[in-house]
Sequence to fold (526 residues):
Amino acid sequence: MIVPTYNEKANIAPMVASLDRALGSLEWEVVFVDDGSPDGTAEEVRAIARVDRRVRLISRHNRRGLASAVVEGGLAAVGEIVAVMDGDLQHDESVLPELYRRVASGEADIASASRFLEDHAREGLSSDQRLALSNRGISMANRFFGLQLTDPLTGFFALRRDKLEAAVPRLSGLGFKILLDLITSMDKPRVSEVPFRFRQRVAGESKLDRRVMYDFFLFFMEKWIGRFAPIPGTWLSTALIASLGILAHLALVIPAVSLFNLPFVPAQIAAAVLSVLVVFSANNWVSRSDAMLKGARFWQGLAVFCLMSAIGVAANVGVAALIHRDFPEMVYVLPATAGALVSVVWNFIAGKAFGFWNRRTRQSAAARSSQRAGRLSVVEGKEAHAAETTWMGDSPLGKHRHLIKYLAIGATASAIDVILFMVIYNLMNQPALVAHSISVPVSVIFSFVVNARHNFKTADHMVLRLLSFVVVCTIGYMSGFGVIELARQQGLDSNIGKIISLPVVFAIQYVLNSRITFYKASRAPA
Fold:
């Protein structure tokens, strides 16, 4: 049994007792996967596990997600058949033997418990609105994926562990509808539905919030686009919020220039500031709503985010002003868009990379000690743990190994960049734009190849990674030249401007490459 939990302390003991009654003579174990519940859920599981060896715990911190919890719990399970149910006592454990029988006999690849085979769904759903929402989701899932199930969104099901392992590389991992993710990631699985009574919630918290709905939307988008290209939902989220920031930018700069006849550069600056606020707010309200900043923390986070975004705003204005000055016949919307693209992408990725929305929950002393020791997860009941064993894994710098390697590789690439630029600009007497256009791609190609092979060790989806690399090259190129142009406007030499631009370009490239180009989804527990 795999039971994801968050603030379910009051439900743990009753659930273990009910499983004992329902499963009778079957040999079973239950793995609770807790996402750092502040109410002491993990401590409650530990207390029961000390007297009942069938009870186990995976305690996760600064991470949250039902899909990933199910995967980690399933891969840590000992039994050949894995069943999943919620920790809120709404799922009727008495149907577990039938779910087990249908999978064990080979009658079905997946046996799922349906709320809608019999008219019991209304009893467990808290309102007519929740019932209508569930019905719309089921209808969408059936039409979109060509299914004929009464409840493809149920969180109560069973399957063989080897089927789960085979599906893991193709799972989206988004949202809380892991059954639908499994069905659409397997090769035409045979699904058998069993009716069950959906109870009222006894204790705990509902998992349905804005973030869950947003992830559900991204899940549909990822699966649909995945028919043509395997683009992760995190990339789609980046693109959506970046597009929102660009639209906000243009919504201000166009009327400012066209209707109010403001100079282009001040309008671009005001629009860039607006896009910063829009991207931060969109992240806080939707994509990071499970860790939303409120009150004083909101203003503190916004202040830090604005400081980080100053890099993107400077590059934005520099690029847009340069294009607008050198190509006056070009419609001003195009340089405004080019500048906005630079700053919006930087703003969004900076928010992700520097952890403005990291979930911080109170942890037990054992959990904090475990994290300091380098463990990635705490699995109790079997006394198993996973430790960091990679390069520098046991040192205090272990968790920053990618950054340290990237710094070394980046320093080499920057030296190549500077030498090439100065040779072409000073010795060959070529314009700064030409020198920059040659030195940057050469240095970034070097950095990309070495990082891909020796730092992040990525060898899959190389076409998409190459496409991402080209985009990062372009953004880095525009940002760097924007800084050089700003330096020239202040009366500095282009060589000095080039040196000043290096940390800006490096920061943008590292954040984009580590979070997008070399992204590797952690489908399985460490």
About this structure: The first strand starts at residue 2 and ends at 5. Residues 407 and 506 are 9 Å apart (CA to CA).
